[in-house]
Amino acid sequence: MKKLIIAFMVFFLNAANLHFSLYKKEGLPGNTLLVIGGIHGNEPGGYYAPSFLVRFYEIKKGSLWVVPNLNFDSIIKYRRGIYGDMNRKFAFIAKTDKDYEIVADIKKIILNPQVDLILNLHDGHGFYRDSWQNSIFNPAAWGQACIIDQEKIKTNKFGNLGEIARKVAQKLNTKLTKDYHCFNVKNTHTKFKDEQMRLSLTYFAITHGKPAFAIETSKNIKDLPTKVYYQLKAIEEFMKIMNIEFKRDFELTIPAIKKLLKKEEYVYINGNTLLPVKNISKVIRFFPMTQKNPEIKSKNPLVTVVKEKNYYVLYEGFHRRAVLFPQYFENFCKIKSVNVEIDGVKKEIKIPSIVKVKNYFKVLSNKRVNVIGYSSKKNEANVKIIKKDVAKRYSVDKKGNIYRVEIYDKKSFCGMLLVDFGG
Ligand SMILES: [Zn+2]
Hints:
By secondary structure, the chain is α/β, with parallel strands linked by helices. Helix content is 22%, strand content 33%. It contains nine helices and 25 strands. The protein has helices spanning 2-15, 45-56, 72-77, 100-110, 161-172, 190-193, 201-206, 224-241, 254-262; strands spanning 23-26, 28-36, 57-67, 117-124, 127-128, 137-138, 145-148, 184-187, 212-218, 245-248, 266-269, 273-276, 283-289, 296-297, 303-308, 311-316, 319-328, 337-342, 345-350, 353-356, 360-364, 368-371, 385-386, 402-409, 412-420. Strands 1, 2, 3, 4, 7, 8, 9 and 10 form an eight-stranded mixed β-sheet that branches. The chain has a four-stranded mixed β-sheet with strand order 13-17-16-15, with no helix packed on it. A hairpin with a 2-residue loop joins strand 18 and strand 19 (345-350). Helix 5 packs across helix 8 (224-241). Residues 40, 43, 122 line the site of zinc ion.
């Protein structure tokens, strides 16, 4: 009986949802736009675009609230909804539903009095057209459309949904990369015609007096940078209509988006270790873990680390980037920095962080230092180490440039830095 209870507890621990994050970017007083991405996990345009808002946009006037990863459990699995369609759970949801907490929490944010307008982002099937052309271009399709539930709602601001949507579509149509990508407005006439849509997030919003739209890029556009481009264009048009002033630190073009999607970034685990996300080796062994439910930080809100069986998986959106096999340690000796001699210069290096090394490094410490892949000694503190001294198969990146330097005090793990010989 005792065993059964333990099994159940483990099950519950593993079953807890990954919760979404909310980023608030506030400028001078003004209107507030809430952008919700990732309600459907197999629609990456809908969550990569808001991850760009989080990282690369600054708001000067008004506010931009971003939930980039609403259905995070489904995003990492690249499934529409692993517990069923979350966008059909806004009229009613059972307390036992696995999405219950997520739906309840996002409803509270939607109803926050500060929020003036809501966008729910998707990649829909086909290309929406007013009249039937073929199985891809037709009125039943959802792609490349701004979706409204009805023409108008009664509110002080932005209640003219149809007019706003048409304005946004018109602006988008001046910036198409291919003519057939053109945007249209799809009115689902939810109240009278669409029983399914009455269960949706936008219908919940408009029936509570909040203007709401869905933006749908197309599942038939396979190129992620192109989808992100259209989503961001649409969001920017909404911000302009709402007098929200913004600045972004990249040029809004498909090549620039592509480049940013490939750019390396880092994940910080438990405040004492870090790893690259994009070019990471597929398997990392004996990774020091000081907490079973790790605390994850990354500038990219789509990055997370999830425990699966006896290992952890590093995800970036739906990409399964690496498997980490943990070695658990106490963390009594947490350190903030360590002195390192790098190519002849002594530096105080923050823990955890990554440092560039051209020729050699030497960790100046009275603690035990373990350079993973350097095998000749038990303690590598105060030892001059060059790239050739470390076995390539221990690198944390695919190119064989980045190595783990771990600091211990007896049996306690203190922290990690990465040395990058990549020039
Ligand atoms: Zn969708």
